[in-house]
Design brief:
The complex is a heterodimer of chains A (452) and B (472).
Chain A (H helix, E strand, L loop, with lengths): L38 H9 L6 E5 L2 H5 L19 E2 L4 H6 L2 H15 L4 E5 L1 H5 L4 H11 L4 E4 L8 H16 L13 E7 L10 H7 L2 E7 L4 H5 L6 E4 L6 H11 L3 E3 L5 H15 L2 H29 L3 E6 L3 H11 L3 E7 L4 H10 L5 E2 L5 H11 L3 E4 L4 H6 L4 E3 L10 H16 L2 H7 L9
Parallel strand pairs in A: 1-2, 1-3, 3-4, 5-6, 5-7, 7-8, 9-10, 9-12, 10-11, 12-13
Helix pairs in contact in A: 1-7, 4-6, 7-10, 11-12, 12-17, 13-14
Chain B lengths: L1 H11 L2 H9 L4 E2 L6 H10 L4 E6 L2 H15 L6 E2 L4 H6 L2 H15 L3 E6 L1 H5 L4 H10 L9 E4 L8 H16 L12 E4 L6 H13 L4 E3 L24 H5 L6 E4 L6 H9 L4 E3 L5 H16 L5 H21 L3 E5 L2 H13 L3 E7 L4 H12 L8 E4 L3 H10 L4 E4 L4 H7 L3 E3 L17 H23 L10
Parallel strand pairs in B: 2-3, 2-4, 4-5, 6-7, 6-8, 8-9, 10-11, 10-13, 11-12, 13-14
The chains are: A alpha/beta (452), B alpha/beta (472).
């Protein structure tokens, strides 16, 4: 039904790098219909989970009106972060400038909403009309007792990844290391970087960390409190969960605060164990390492026993995997743990390293999805006829139209999949998805053919 | 620390804070409106073979698609020409040329509907001129139809965008009106309406009344498509031939009087007869619709419909006692609010707080006169241009029994400890509500069902054993 863009030579011919991975995070082509968001969204995704601060969007209704409280990041305390705060730039502001409006809004929030800090997001419109968000934030901060932090992330700067990076810079420059009191490292403490507590993911991991005697200083930024973030420089180790989004941040923290970093993933039994062991190794405590080795063995056995029933039901199913970041490779082994083969895999917002890792883990016969538009996605479904698709919410209803079971593993999901507990949830949900009787119903002809 | 938190929460619930909250002028908290291009996108989905195309930043399109997709639980096809920083400096012409070329080649549409996002508007892109240049360069064929709409989100709201896009689509696709070519059809414009069942119900009623009609736009089959095993990019929409003939319409009937002024003005300027009525919600609203159609056809209202009306009124008599005297707060779009308030007044319900973020002067006047003319409307105040944080203050300081509005109202309802009946857009936390009509006589029954049963569920869950009853 569709013409494939790749065949039309519309894509950059050099899109395959020497290492054989597609040019990742490439600019979307005009008119191709790729599912990309913008730099503003990227910054918001990283910063918005900070719970006890206010997030003020200096833009027209499009930016906040379409995105307030839409992300599924959960908080154990303050719900202030979910409030949809915006200056709602109107035509007159475009003509006369929106700086006064912004200043008044910041002051109003500080006085009436009791935030620990205010993050102010610039948008396409505020930047194009020349509002100096930095200046206004500085002025407002001088009148207040809380930090007012400008996030210069107009959407036109590019894709989500650029926004992620900007957010990392903001955290490094304005938040981390600003706490009063001791700067001493806290023994056996870690930060989880790029973990946003979607659907409560982090709550499935914290008990295991605690059982091992590891302290979570803060996640950056899932369920994060502003004061904990300010002391994030006191952690002994940074564990980078979503490697695409905040690599710049961990590198800078290593240089400035001497915090080593490692990459890890809490998706799936294998990766959870490996990550816990690597954390123990990196923290350099022989006792901890010994404890961890025994602990993960016990947890693996328990978890495998619990999911054995699900695995029996899922064994041999064929999947298409399409996601971003750490899940690119981590989901390959998670699905393999349940006996599921991957027919084709693709990624949009991943680093080349993530991608190579995915490729190494997949069966050599698995196809790499190059065309990430709806058209490309549908083509690969039609060719491969998978038993299930594991991807982000934007492709969910496309998949359903092709009568293919679909599991959302990005921010649209409602259930936590991280850690051993998350693996059980994942197996359960996947089984429910693949074995739903509705797929059988869809296969029936109606009215039935006469010869049957 | 904790005592401070408690104090803050109590203070937010106080009359003192309500006053300060209503003095707030610059800051918007929890807005109850979406932006122009979102409405334009939805409108464009309702024309056969039409591909919605945002001229502007790609992030906007990603937001529209995901918001619409979450409401309808359907894929939503749209493209953008991905303007970035360099386009901000040099203008978006090359983006539009490449975008149209690619979209035309990949998605094979019959028509492309271009609407702008803020970025293109701020830098002053002339989309008409760009389109001319695109065709001149041969990026798309000269005769390929492309509809245009300027829809910056710093003006108006989603309903304005729908209106502007509709005008653009008619202007692009219709042949000029000619006295000897006037057709026999009634063109019915629903307005920004996110109930696919409403659109289907309009069609059913028009068919039952034997009226030759065209529903424009009609995305009911596009965002509520049957599962056939294959994804269809263009599964329905107002037929192309009827679009071509849309200025030769015998007459237009606009069903959201306060939400389609641009289209109305445009049609009038082309000497097309236009009648605009309020959204047919409630008995009186539906009666007006039926009578307007009957006037057009010159035929009697069929018995099928009078019987249907009778059943709806019967349902009202069966359940009026559950709504009579109950206090309501509502928020939403202008025409939806007029319809819902009309219905509540018919049932003896008492609207108290009515919040309309995207209010217009004409709507305000109409709502206020509707309330003033009815004994059950005397307690109501319309809060024009206010947001859901204002609504929250109203609910906690001047309590009502129920909130009616979209999913965004769930926090305010929770804080006020009252039920929320979901009506409007977006509804992202309940299933299938858009598959039940709220317009027409059947809509009356559905609204009663939702409102009354919600009250009764509350009663059952909260009643002591002594008052737990089989009959309610």
């Amino acid at each position: 039904m569709f013409t494939n863009l790749t065949k039309l030579d519309l894509k950059d011919k050099k899109c395959m790098s020497d290492a054989g991975s597609p040019k990742l995070c490439m600019k979307a082509l005009p008119g191709e219909g790729a599912e990309r968001s913008c730099a503003y969204d990227g910054a918001r995704v990283v910063l918005m989970p900070i719970t006890d601060v206010a997030h003020l969007v200096h833009g027209p209704i499009a930016c906040a009106g379409n995105s307030w409280d839409n992300r599924g990041a959960r908080s154990s305390g303050s719900q202030l972060f979910r409030r949809g705060l915006t200056t709602d730039i109107m035509e007159n502001d475009v003509i006369y400038g929106g700086e006064t409006k912004l200043k008044e809004s910041i002051l109003e929030i500080a006085v009436r909403h009791n935030p620990k800090a205010i993050f102010v997001y610039a948008t396409c419109v505020s930047s194009l009309i020349g509002d100096d968000v930095d200046k206004i934030c500085r002025e407002a901060e001088a009148e207040l007792t809380i930090p007012v932090i400008a996030v210069n992330c107009p959407g036109f700067l590019g894709d989500k990844n650029i926004g992620n990076r900007i957010a990392g810079e903001v955290l490094f420059d304005r938040v981390i290391g600003t706490a009063e009191g001791s700067d001493e490292k806290i023994p056996l403490s870690i930060n989880l970087i790029g973990e946003y507590n979607i659907a409560g993911d982090i709550w499935g991991v914290i008990p295991d960390l605690n059982n091992l005697g590891i302290t979570l200083q803060t996640a950056i930024t899932g369920d994060a409190k502003f004061d904990d973030l300010r002391s994030a420089h006191r952690a002994s180790l940074n564990v980078l969960i979503c490697s695409k989004s905040l690599t710049n941040l961990v590198r800078k923290m290593e240089i400035k605060y001497g915090i080593p970093f490692m990459e890890g993933s809490f998706y799936g039994i294998h990766d959870t164990s490996e990550t816990l062991i690597n954390i123990a190794k990196a923290l350099g405590d022989p006792d901890l390492l010994e404890r961890t080795m025994a602990y993960v063995q016990k947890r693996e056995d328990e978890t495998r026993k619990t999911i054995a029933g699900y695995k029996a039901l899922l064994e041999g199913k064929q999947a298409i995997l399409f996601t971003g970041g750490v899940k690119t490779w981590s989901m390959v082994s998670t699905l393999a743990e349940l006996g599921i083969n991957i027919l084709a895999g693709g990624t949009q917002n991943s680093t080349p390293e993530d991608f190579q890792r995915m490729k190494e883990l997949m069966d050599p016969s698995a196809q790499i999805i190059e065309d990430t538009s709806s058209a490309g996605f549908l083509k690969i479904i039609a060719e491969k006829k998978p038993d299930l698709i594991v991807a982000g919410g934007k492709t969910k209803y496309l998949a359903h139209k092709t009568r293919t079971p679909f599991l959302d593993i990005n921010h649209g999901r409602k259930l936590p999949y991280a850690g051993y507990e998350g693996m059980i949830q994942f197996a359960k949900t996947l089984t429910r998805t693949v074995l739903s009787p509705v797929w059988g119903l869809l296969q029936q002809d109606f009215p039935p053919k006469e010869d049957e | 620390m904790d005592s401070c938190k408690v104090a803050t929460k109590e203070w937010l619930n106080s009359v003192e804070y309500r006053e300060k909250n209503f003095a707030r002028e610059k800051l918007v908290i929890n807005p109850a409106k979406a932006c122009q291009p979102l409405g334009a996108l939805l409108c464009a989905l309702g024309v056969e073979g039409c591909l919605p195309f945002t001229h502007g930043s790609q992030g906007c399109t990603a937001y529209f698609r995901s918001t619409l997709s979450r409401h309808f639980r359907e894929p939503v096809a749209a493209v953008s020409d991905s303007m970035t920083e360099d386009s901000a400096v040099f203008g978006g012409q090359s983006n539009m040329i490449d975008g149209l070329k690619n979209a035309h080649a990949v998605y094979d549409p019959k028509v492309i509907a271009i609407f702008t996002s803020c970025m293109a508007e701020v830098i002053g892109d002339d989309i008409g001129a760009y389109l001319g240049n695109t065709k001149e360069q041969g990026a798309i064929p000269q005769d390929f139809p492309v509809a245009l709409a300027n829809t910056p989100s710093f003006k108006g709201s989603h309903i304005t965008g729908y209106d502007t896009m509709l005008k653009g689509l008619i202007d692009c696709l219709a042949t000029p009106r000619q006295a000897d070519k006037i057709n026999d059809r009634l063109y019915v414009v629903p307005g920004f309406d996110t109930y696919t069942a409403n659109l289907r119900e309009y069609k059913r009623l028009l068919k039952a009344m034997d009226a030759p009609y065209t529903l424009l736009p009609d995305y009911s089959d596009v965002v509520d498509a049957p599962n056939t095993g294959t994804y269809e990019l263009y599964p329905g929409g107002t037929p192309f031939t009827e679009m071509n003939d849309s200025l030769n319409a015998a007459s237009y009937l606009l069903l959201q009087k306060y939400s389609t002024p641009t289209t109305s003005k445009y049609l009038t300027s082309k000497e097309v007869p236009v009648e605009a009525i309020s959204m047919p919600i409630g008995i009186e609203g539906t009666d007006n619709f039926i009578q307007a159609v009957a006037k057009f056809t010159g035929k009697d209202v069929p018995e099928e419909i009078t019987l249907e009306r009778g059943r709806s009124i019967d349902a009202m008599t069966d359940s009026h006692q559950y709504i009579h005297g109950k206090k309501f707060a509502l928020f939403g779009d202008p025409d939806l609010l007029i319809g819902l308030v009309t219905f509540l007044l018919e049932m003896g319900g008492v609207p108290v707080h009515i919040v309309c973020t995207n209010s217009t002067p004409l709507f305000k006047k109409a709502m206020e006169s509707l309330l003033a003319s009815n004994p059950f409307g005397q307690e109501a105040t319309l809060y024009a241009g206010k947001d859901l944080w204002h609504l929250r203050s109203l609910l906690v300081t001047e309590p009502v029994d129920m909130l009616i509005g979209d999913s965004h109202g769930k926090w305010a309802a929770r804080d006020a400890n009252i039920p929320l009946v979901r009506v409007g857009f977006p509804i992202t936390d309940r299933v299938n509500l858009h598959r039940y009509p709220i317009i027409g006589y059947s809509g009356v029954i559905n609204l009663i069902t939702m409102i009354v049963n919600t009250f009764l569920d509350e009663v059952d869950r909260n009643s002591t054993e002594a008052h737990f009853e089989m009959m309610r």
